[in-house]
Amino acid sequence: MAQAAPTLELPGRRTRRTSPLARREARAFYGFASPWILGFILFGGGPVVAALLLSFAHWSLLSTPSWAGLANYRKMFADPLFYKSIGNTVYFGAGSVVLGVVTSFLLAILLNQKVRGLGFFRTVFYLPSVVAGVATAILWINILQPDSGLINSFLRFFGIKGPGWLVDEHWAIPGLILMSVWGAGNTIVIYLAGLQGISPTLYEAALLDGAGWWDRFWHVTVPMMSPVIFFNVVTSLIASLQAYTLVLVMTEGGPNNATLMLGLYIYRQAFEYFDMGYAAALSWAMFALIGVVTALQFVLARRWVHYDA
Amino acid sequence: MTLTATPPQQAPPTQRRPIGSSQTSVERFRKTITYVLLIAGTAVFVIPFLWMVTTSLKTSQEVLAYPPKVLPATPRFDNYPAAWTSLPFTTFLINSIIITGLSVIGNLVSCVLPAYAFARLRARSRGALFALMVATMAIPAEVTLVPTFIMFSKLNLVNTYWPLFLPAWFGYAFFIFLLRQFFLTIPQELTDAASIDGAGHLRTLWSIFLPMSKPAIAAVAIFSFVGNWNNFLTPLIYLRTQNNFTLALGLSLFKGQYETQYNQMMAVGIISLLPILIVFFLAQRTFVEGVRLSGLGGR
């Protein structure tokens, strides 16, 4: 808080620091915050630095580590699977975020139309995101089965021959995207909260100006919701980059590495090939990728996100 | 579950038109379209679950039948005990309960304390530490995965439960952030009154903050429960002998060993989801409130 009457020479901050009461409060602060501070050293910042150091080393865990210089990074930039995994990660991320954001937003708008049974619908849309795990991954292997699976059986009903989803190189990632949209219902809750926060007077004003439903949607709802959409895009994109654990269960990166995500490739290098140095270098590439994508979104956000006071 | 914050129940008033005006049929049309789309959406979201249930009750022949059958001729409930005993799933269940339980308790203890510090206690480096904590939310788990594994393997803790629950006892930025946002809404006067009464910080936290923050604490507990119960990657990396496996790991082992036994796979899958489903339906409002809290924190 602002210092109302500064004393002669001593700046307010100095006085506060030397007061025994403030010192006791600061000690309490560090005491209470210590679980997180220790956690940051042991499981956060510490490992991040360690990973950076490790990326300049050769180490299989069994031998003694040896200095590698830039060898791991040179290997990375010459590794076709590295580029393939980046491509797959971006493809899956873009597909699942765009489809997920559009679907969830539209469903949230429908739910915001004063419908009966709001609680029921919300439960239905939200539930898949809660149970997402190995069990639902196995469920989706079955649903995406080319012959006896649910989706292709449904398509066959209309005389359409469905693709080979997880077994066809070109359809493996679209299959994973479908599953991810099914599990993206948690964002509906966030959209709904945002929609309910839009002042009705804005819509009334738009109506007075003779705006139709499309104009109201495009010029009121979308701009007012843009910070919420932005939040969901950023968080679901980061989440999609880490969605590889289910891929591990479903396709193990196949067919022909068509679903090899960057995270999965890191896992493979570290825990199947025990090339800890290379895995660390790849993990820093992933860190950089997330950083670049997020920064890019913040730059783009200036063009379309409106923060209303 | 009681909530202090208002759940998102009431929608903003849509434009009311006088009954009998020419617009009502348009309104009615719009309402119909809305429900048709919502019901279609519901079908898309629900059918996979129904498929899971019907598949779990089919015979092995019915699972692979072509064209597929929607319903089994007679429901085969014995798929459930058969699947459950084909691998030591009872052991996996107990392991999951132990690991998840220790993690949830750890998350609560180690997140409530820093959240209180960040919300109420002043120190010179508080702002910087808080910014650092928020920044750590952007660190992908993959970056810390390898060094953390090396650390635990040097401590000879691979194939024990320690690597799976110990990190939960050292704070988790997202939960601390969520709790801190909630703590900030508790009026300062209450804390002042308590400290005049001679209550220390632990007492204040215990007897004022915690009772007033039930929705946020429940949300953290539930998120932690679901996250740990569903966790697959860390058990996969750290657990080696089958007797130590969790349910998620056991399920993937089952999938590897009985590649086409979808009926039994779905049966154990359903059993493994039951605890989450029960918690979800009991504490649904808390879930929704937690998601709202976290989502609006990002605004």
Automatic annotation (TrEMBL), chain A:
Gene3D superfamilies: MetI-like. One of its GO terms (biological process) is transmembrane transport. Its main location: membrane. The chain crosses the membrane at residues 29-57, 90-111, 123-143, 171-193, 228-251, 278-300. The keyword Secreted does not apply. GO terms for cellular component: plasma membrane. Pfam families: BPD_transp_1. Residues 86-297 form the ABC transmembrane type-1 domain. It comes from the Bacteria. Keywords: Cell membrane, Membrane, Transmembrane, Transmembrane helix, Transport. The keyword Cell membrane applies. It is a multi-pass membrane protein. It is found in: Cell membrane. Belongs to the binding-protein-dependent transport system permease family. This is Carbohydrate ABC transporter membrane protein 1 (CUT1 family).
UniProtKB/TrEMBL annotation, chain B:
Residues 93-283 form the ABC transmembrane type-1 domain. Its main location: membrane. It is a multi-pass membrane protein. One of its GO terms (cellular component) is plasma membrane. PROSITE patterns: ABC_TM1. Keywords: Cell membrane, Membrane, Transmembrane, Transmembrane helix, Transport. GO terms for biological process: transmembrane transport. It is found in: Cell membrane. InterPro entries: MetI-like (IPR000515), MetI-like_sf (IPR035906). It holds the Pfam family BPD_transp_1. The chain crosses the membrane at residues 33-53, 92-116, 128-152, 164-183, 204-226, 262-283. Residues 1-23 are annotated as: Disordered. Residues 1-18 have a biased composition (Low complexity). Belongs to the binding-protein-dependent transport system permease family. PANTHER family: ABC TRANSPORTER PERMEASE PROTEIN MG189-RELATED, ABC TRANSPORTER PERMEASE PROTEIN MG189-RELATED-RELATED. This is Carbohydrate ABC transporter membrane protein 2 (CUT1 family).
